[in-house]
Amino acid sequence: MKKELWLKADTKKWKNKKEKITTALEQGYDTILINDNEVEKTRELGTIKTASPGDSGDIKIAGIKGEGDGSKTLPTSPKSSEDIKKLENFEGETAEYIIIKDKKHEEFASQIADKVDYIIIRGEDWKIIPLENLIAELQEKDVKIITGVENTNEIETALKTLEVGSDGVLIETNNIQEIITASEKIQQLQEEEINLIEATITKIKPVGMGDRVCVDTCSLMTKGEGMLVGSSSNGLFLVHSESIESPYVAARPFRVNAGGVHAYLKTPGNKTKYLSELKAGDEVLIVNKDGKTRKAIVGRSKIEKRPLMLIEAETKNKKIKTVLQNAETIRLVDTEGNPKSISKLKEGDKILVNTEEKARHFGMEVTETITEK
Questions:
Q1: Strand partners of residue 182
Q2: By the 8 A CB rule, do 295 and 282 touch?
Q3: How many angstroms separate the CA atoms of 312 and 333, rounded?
Q4: CATH of span 4-190
Q5: Contacts of 218 (CB under 8 A, 6+ apart)
Q6: What pLDDT digit, counting tens, does each position of 63-103 carry?
Q7: Quick count: other Cβ atoms within 10 Å of Cβ 189?
Q8: How far apart are CA 363 and CA 284, in angstroms?
Q9: Which of the listed CATH numbers 3.40.50, 2.160.20, 1.20.1560, 2.170.16 matches domain 197-366?
Q10: Where are the CATH 3.20.20.70 domain residues in the chain?
Q11: What's the CA gap between 341 and 285, in Å, rounded?
């Protein structure tokens, strides 16, 4: 699940935070917590979700200047909270900001979770234990936990507590480099690692003309990177990007010539999509020879009629196949991590693949028997 990254920028002087907000925009932050009278100024800098105590933002926050900061006595229940009452008629998303000073604040956060879309919590003396308790108590509730952090060293703890972590972090800093590093850290922590194993090529057969898909992304790929594609969702081949120079055609390092329109493609969150479904703006998963992954955005999905080649391979306990364009620039990845053109591929060659035991339904893993031939 995607972790959210928020920037706290509700200090007094606008000129002191404009650079912070611009940096957050450039780094792909999800939300800016800002003063209500500065929401429009923030939107003028770029498109981003805003959170504020008033009605101008996309998310209305209670407690940011009241009960949540510990300066007021906590209400006896969420129903008696004056701040929460202010949220009841707001049409957008809502949040409660709570500084956890003691067990009562933690209990209040748990109770109020039924009333809002987000709880934003920041610990003082105790940080990890209250977060653990709230994650455990609220995991079945429809509320997101955003953890306040003061530096990037706290991010990993917040996002990995109890192996689940909070749903995001709110960073409060005046350090521009920390704002940049926080974004990089979130991306690193969300990288999936995929188990690639050896498979042996058992058949290579031209099968005639068909529709194939080129996936053009908004990212540049390097040697050893590509995408996982296959005719069955539980058996995917690492198809190399077109990042290799050739005497006959220029490199297209943003592209994976991924194969027939019927094929599955691995996407973020351990899901799959049919190649025929891909469109501009979709997220796909770039995978390297070591199984390290990163997300990329589709800029264009290009379908054209081309001659196709059936590739079959076998692991220790599974036979898998895919259909790729029959061209020298289409490459799989061998067990040394090197791209190997299918024009030079032969039976007995070893390549990298990803296999699963479970089947899929609408791209999601399911435990049921499905046979794909």
A1: none
A2: no
A3: 14
A4: 3.20.20.70
A5: 254, 296, 297, 298, 299
A6: 876 555 445 556 555 555 666 777 877 889 999 998 888 88
A7: 14
A8: 13
A9: 2.170.16
A10: 4-190
A11: 22
